[in-house]
TrEMBL record:
Location(s) in or outside the cell: Cell membrane; Membrane
CDD domains: SURF1
Entry keyword annotation includes Kinase: no
UniProt-listed InterPro entries: Surf1/Shy1, Surf1/Surf4
Pfam families: SURF1
Membrane spanning stretches: 219-239
PROSITE patterns from the UniProt entry: SURF1 (PS50895)
Domain of life: Bacteria
Membrane topology: Multi-pass membrane protein
Species this protein is from: Streptomyces rochei (Streptomyces parvullus)
UniProt keywords, alphabetically: Cell membrane, Membrane, Transmembrane, Transmembrane helix
Official protein name in the record: SURF1-like protein
Length: 263
């Protein structure tokens, strides 16, 4: 009755179905894992952003690596900007994906150590980007800055190549160890994204708050893959039943009809 299942066509179809089921189940678990990761990340970011500001020196120090729990924490520091040793970070985009620079300005603390401050985005002057752009000046004198603490950028984490031979005062990555070597001074680990004081005339353009990752989408994808996995055996059985019915219909049509005697 089901001898056709031993045919080459049906053996291949059955093997494909057998392989699809565990593959789709694994994909569902992978999406669920991504959902849990993104949910945990969103919770961590929310807690960091909602936490009360603390002095930057309480969370970082020269050579210190910023941890996941310290990332996005709001910190404050007192000192003054050193615009003479300011650099710009190449190939950075604004909220509309326009390419320009991030402005990285050393902030000299009262004890002489340096905190790197990403003051925001400015547009590129021209296509060559070989000269140092015109950068709006920050507030002068002794001030207090507030910003979100960020870990050092690396090629491994960001995918950005740390190119050599760049124009003067231009860099690819914000890295406290590299800047400590350039500045010949102790630099606190990581850097901050400036929140206050507000830039004059809105430039440099402030970097927005980190958004929530769409964890619900991964949850939906996980359910979708598991439904697909459940549908495979159902679909396979439906095809088997249809094939059996079609073969029976063909066999009935092929049987010779009895001759009727003439009256």
């Amino acid at each position: 009755m089901y001898r056709f299942l031993l045919s080459r066509q049906w053996v291949i179809l059955t093997l494909v179905a057998v392989l699809l089921i565990p593959t789709m189940i694994r994909l569902g678990f992978w999406q669920m894992h991504r959902y849990e990761e993104r949910t945990a990340r969103n919770d961590l970011v929310a807690r960091a952003l909602d936490a009360a500001p603390v002095p930057a020196e309480s969370l970082t120090a020269p050579g210190k690596k910023i941890t996941t729990r310290e990332r996005y924490r709001t910190v404050t520091a007192q000192g003054h900007f050193d615009t003479e040793r300011e650099v710009v970070v190449r190939r950075r985009t604004d909220s509309d994906d326009n390419i320009g620079y991030h402005v990285l300005t050393p902030f000299v603390l009262n004890d002489g150590r340096i905190l790197l401050v990403n003051r925001g985005w400015i547009p590129a002057d021209g296509p060559s980007q070989t000269t140092f752009p015109e950068v709006p000046a920050p507030p002068g004198g002794e001030i207090t800055v507030t910003g979100r603490l960020m870990p050092d950028e690396t090629t491994e984490a960001s995918g950005i190549k740390d190119l050599e031979g760049l124009p003067d005062r231009q860099i690819m990555l914000i890295n406290s160890a590299q800047q400590a070597e350039r500045l010949k001074a102790p630099v606190l680990g990581g850097y901050i994204v400036l929140m206050e004081p507000e830039p004059k005339n809105g430039t440099p353009e402030r970097i927005g708050r980190p958004g929530n990752e769409d964890a619900a989408l991964n949850y939906a994808y996980a359910i979708q893959w598991w439904l697909f996995a459940a549908a495979v055996p159902v679909g396979w059985w439906f095809l088997v039943r249809r094939e059996k019915r079609d073969r029976e219909t063909a066999e009935d049509a092929a049987e010779p009809q009895p001759e009727h005697a003439a009256v």
